[in-house]
Design brief:
single chain; alpha+beta; Jelly Rolls; Laminin; 8-stranded mixed sheet; 36 strands; 27% strand; disordered C terminus; binds 2-acetamido-2-deoxy-beta-D-glucopyranose; binds calcium ion; differentiation; repeat; laminin egf-like domain; LE_dom; Netrin-G1
């Protein structure tokens, strides 16, 4: 297969395979390159492409992921506790800028004066902010607490900063939490306070100071909680880009490096994945160093926008994600299915499911074939070869995808590639075979004279004795002469007076002494017994 790798862009730049007409092809490629370069590399925006190869046209599959979207358009929100939203009953409030002009009113029953939660997700017209607003801190010193929970019912991979815009001042203490399992379990994501030590007993840190080994550390930041005038600094961020930049460089130019790290660093990908987010607002903006008890109407929360940019997590098996029946769904390719393309389609269950991979660069792999067939749960990226390979294949398998049998084993033809019994030991007879390897049907390579699948039998005219040796005697062609008997094809047992391999030689001819009838020296018991018998017979004949 020699399809060429072109820079990637899906819709505007169709990707041909290796065209055979080289000159025309080069022109075409050049034209494509000119058009596609700005969008080249690491886009992962197409799942497959029809390519022409030396073996004819066929599909080639790549890792793919949906485009990043404005996730606030698909979210459901819950604000707690009940009654935290202002306006029921109607209430007056004022701002830190105008603390003594408390003429603003929140009234839930009047659309012009209501501040319901959905106003955190509408699109903002220039100049006029719409916002959710809490009740004021009239119960001070009881803390003013509010939870804002965002749920997608779908795993989302963050691709940009989460930006929360507060009108009338940012909270002086808040916390961001995340869930990866639709709200069953929650984990801290980031702490925010004007004094981290005092609020959370944590040192203040900045994301910019994190390193490659701490890129997924949960920290407390003081950057978004200090009072700077409520109009000036309105946003609280969860810095996704700064964390990406640790790997991809300040302008996120080196995304390949980021993808490589997302693939290999444990927990890094999951760190940027959420199904739910929760803001725990723990203390509102104070507009100063202490709370003015005589004017509690100026303490409240007001959130005008929550921007969450991310893409559906489809395990690199889909490039489209659509809003269906109230939730986001990946449009799965690569014979996968499920909301996140997290399992194999019905008729592909014998394969073990795996997420696609950003590697090898630039197109990644769907891992549909490129998997370890369940014989290894570890893959390793070999940088200089730009390949992903399975590590420590089990069940006597070997190879980049554990798709071969180890030496000394052969493929079980009735087992699928992901079966634990896929490789059968050759079991070659150690003496009868040349080595312990066998062919695909389990046949070993035999030494001379040996036969049988395992080389533990002898060919006709061979006998087994620590290996196969040619017969010395038999009942057909290699007959023992002069009344000798063939012992297990190994040798003739000769009557007294005869010797030689086939007892063909008379001892008298060879040595006069033997004619006296003394039994030959060195004979086995059987020979001796036979000799005795022969002597007796001779004696009787002489009588
Ligand atoms: C906010 O959620 C947390 C759980 O994460 C809960 O313990 C707390 O009581 C909630 N606060 C409010 C005000 O509902
Ligand atoms: C969440 O998504 C799943 C899968 O699409 C769907 O079956 C379920 O009804 C959704 N749940 C809610 C609460 O929307
Ligand atoms: C999905 O299944 C079809 C039909 O069996 C097959 O032709 C195709 O190669 C498969 N795709 C992948 C990525 O495994
Ligand atoms: C070959 O695989 C089948 C299916 O798993 C299994 O039942 C059989 O025992 C295997 N054969 C050998 C010789 O291991
Ligand atoms: C394996 O070897 C045997 C014996 O030489 C032969 O009959 C068989 O066809 C071979 N199988 C393969 C797949 O080459
Ligand atoms: Ca708004």
């Amino acid at each position: 297969m020699t399809s060429s790798r072109l820079p990637r862009d899906s819709r505007h730049c169709p990707r041909p395979g290796t065209p055979r007409l080289a000159a025309a092809a080069m022109l075409y490629l050049a034209a494509l390159l000119v058009h596609c370069v700005p969008l080249a590399m690491g886009q992962y925006d197409i799942c497959k492409s029809w390519v022409t190869t030396d073996d004819g046209p066929s599909w080639e599959f790549y890792a793919c992921q949906p485009k990043a979207m404005r996730m606030k358009d698909y979210v459901t929100v819950r604000v707690e506790p009940a009654g935290i939203t202002c306006g029921d009953p109607p209430e007056r409030f004022c701002t830190h800028e105008n603390p003594y002009l408390c003429s603003d009113e929140c009234d839930a029953s009047n659309p012009d004066l209501a501040h319901p939660p959905r106003l955190m997700f509408d699109s903002e017209d220039e100049g006029l902010a719409t916002y959710w607003q809490s009740v004021t801190w009239r119960r001070y010193p009881e803390p003013l607490l509010a939870n804002i929970t965002l749920s997608w019912n779908k795993s989302i991979e963050l691709t940009d900063d989460i930006v929360i815009t507060f009108e009338y001042g940012r909270p002086t203490i808040m916390m961001l939490e995340k869930s990866l399992d639709n709200g069953r379990t929650w984990h801290p994501y980031q702490y925010y306070a004007d004094d981290c030590m005092e609020a959370f007993s944590m040192p203040a840190r900045r994301v910019r100071d994190l390193s490659t080994t701490s890129a997924n550390r949960v920290l407390c930041t003081e950057e978004y909680s200090r009072w700077a005038g409520s109009k000036k600094e309105k946003t609280v961020r969860f810095e996704v880009r700064d964390r990406f930049a640790i790997f991809a460089g300040p302008d996120l130019k080196n995304m390949d490096n980021l993808y490589t790290r997302l693939e290999s660093a444990k927990g890094l990908k999951d760190f940027f994945t959420v199904t739910d987010l929760r803001m725990r607002l723990l203390r509102p903006a104070l507009g100063g160093t202490y709370v003015q008890r005589e004017n509690l109407y100026k303490y409240f929360y007001a959130v005008s926008n929550i921007e969450v940019t991310g893409r559906c997590k489809c395990n690199l098996h889909a490039n489209l994600c659509t809003f269906k029946e109230g939730s986001l769904q990946c449009e799965c390719e690569h014979n996968t299915t499920g909301q996140d393309c997290g399992k194999c389609k019905k008729n592909f269950r014998s394969r073990s499911w795996r997420a696609g991979s950003y590697l090898p660069l630039p197109n990644g792999s769907p891992n549909a074939y490129c998997e370890c067939y369940g014989h290894s749960n570890r893959c390793s990226y070999i940088d200089f070869l730009n390949v992903v390979t399975c590590v420590s294949c089990k069940h006597n398998t070997r190879g980049q995808h554990c798709q071969h049998c180890r030496l000394g084993f052969y493929r079980n033809s009735s087992a699928e590639l992901d079966d634990e019994n896929v490789c059968i030991e050759c079991n070659c007879n150690q003496i009868g075979s040349m080595h312990d390897r066998c062919n695909e049907t389990g046949y070993c390579e035999c030494r001379e004279g040996a036969t049988g699948p395992k080389c533990d039998d002898c060919l006709p005219n061979y006998y087994w004795r620590q290996g196969c040796f040619p017969n010395v005697c038999d009942d057909e062609l290699l007959l023992c002469q002069n009344g000798g008997t063939c012992y297990q094809n190994q040798r003739c047992i000769c009557p007294v007076g005869f010797k030689g391999v086939l007892c063909q030689q008379s001892r008298c001819e060879a040595d006069k002494k033997d004619c006296d009838g003394a039994p030959g020296a060195g004979g086995s018991l059987a020979t001796v017994a036979l000799g005795v018998l022969a002597l007796q017979l001779r004696g009787w004949a002489d009588l």
